[in-house]
Amino acid sequence: MINDGAEELRDDIAAIEVAMLTLSDEQGHLNSYPMYTLQLDRDGVLWFFIRQSTFQSSKTEYVNLSYADPGSHTYLSISGSAICREDPELKRKFWSPLYETWFPMGVDHTDLCLLAVKIEKADIWDPETAAMKNLINIKR
């Protein structure tokens, strides 16, 4: 795993499940999309389903993910590099009929891809100090 902060990050992500993914378009405008977290793997990669056309409209491969749970005062900001992967076997592994709500075209549709976000920086709100605390910081 990435470092000691990764386990805390894994637990918080598992409890929240949905992130807001922020991408920048060709005019530099920021757009955010709700994303259901499929997995945080041991290599520090977060996995999501996304429409390939949505990701390709972004003009950056560097993204931000925000997780928030006001009830527990848990707030995360994660940034990293993202790629869209076309891997039919992995898509089927992660697929659940629940995802048909967001992707009615199904798991085999050509516009559905797996977004892999390699975590480079992760911060969490620390209510004791009223400031963000760094959990992961990998230099580019």
Automatic annotation (TrEMBL):
Tell me which domain of life the UniProt entry assigns to the organism this sequence originates from: Bacteria
Gene3D superfamilies per record: Electron Transport, Fmn-binding Protein, Chain A
The record's annotation in InterPro entries points to: Split_barrel_FMN-bd, Stress-Dev_Protein, YdaG_split_barrel_FMN-bd
Pfam short name (any one): Pyrid_ox_like
Q: Where is the General stress protein FMN-binding split barrel domain?
A: 6-139
Name listed for the protein in its UniProt record: Putative general stress protein 26
